[in-house]
UniProtKB/TrEMBL annotation:
Enzyme Commission number: 5.3.1.9
Similarity-based family: Belongs to the archaeal-type GPI family.
Record has Nucleotide-binding as a keyword: no
GO CC terms: cytoplasm
Example of a GO biological process term: gluconeogenesis
Pfam families in the record: GPI
Protein name, as recorded: glucose-6-phosphate isomerase
Length: 184
């Protein structure tokens, strides 16, 4: 007797689209990103219903040892001169790491320790990013098309947005040469 062969969830690497799995979908809109962008007036003048990014993730058990797999699709755009970005977060359980894989588009991954030490990594198709424990992270789309990144993280990690209420130490703005980094 042959065992049943199950078709697991699939991801299209070029687009980050999932198939064959129970999905959770969440959109983050301009209005959800209070205090994230430096130009408050430009943020207020935008339609609060405009989607900045959306996340699709495979539904998973929240048991210890289980993993989430999801794709963030960060639209191209700016608020003022500052590029669209994700809200960014630490993990509630700070000792939990994460892995990002660049799928499409171009941008940056902003990483910051609890001590405020920040660095940027280029995100592009095929890039692999190991996010260490105790490190906040945020995607920034510096390109003209959607930046998509697949992530894998422990289901027990959680998200702590409040720890970054004062923002990240670095910000990325459009410039004549493409983009420039300024201290937050």
């Amino acid at each position: 007797m042959n065992p049943d062969i199950i078709l697991p969830p699939q991801v299209a690497w070029a687009s980050g689209a999932f198939a064959n799995g129970p999905l959770i979908r969440k959109a983050t809109r301009v209005g959800d990103l209070t205090g994230v962008f430096s130009d408050t007036l430009a943020w207020q003048q935008r339609d609060p219903n405009d989607v900045v990014y959306h996340v699709e993730m495979l539904d998973s058990t929240a048991d210890a040892g289980a993993l989430y797999v999801g794709v963030t699709h960060l639209n191209a755009g700016k608020i003022g001169d500052e590029f669209y970005m994700t809200r960014g977060h630490f993990h509630k359980q700070r000792e939990q790491g994460e892995v990002y894989f660049g799928l499409s588009g171009e941008g940056l991954l902003l990483l910051q320790t609890e001590q405020g030490e920040a660095r940027l990594e280029r995100v592009a198709p095929g890039s692999v990013h190991i996010i260490p424990p105790f490190t906040a992270h945020r995607l920034i789309n510096t390109g003209t098309e959607t930046l998509s990144s697949l992530a894998v993280w422990p289901t027990v990690a959680g998200h702590d947005y409040a720890a970054l209420a004062g923002g990240f130490a670095l910000r990325v703005f459009a410039s004549d040469s493409g983009w420039e980094v300024r201290h937050g």
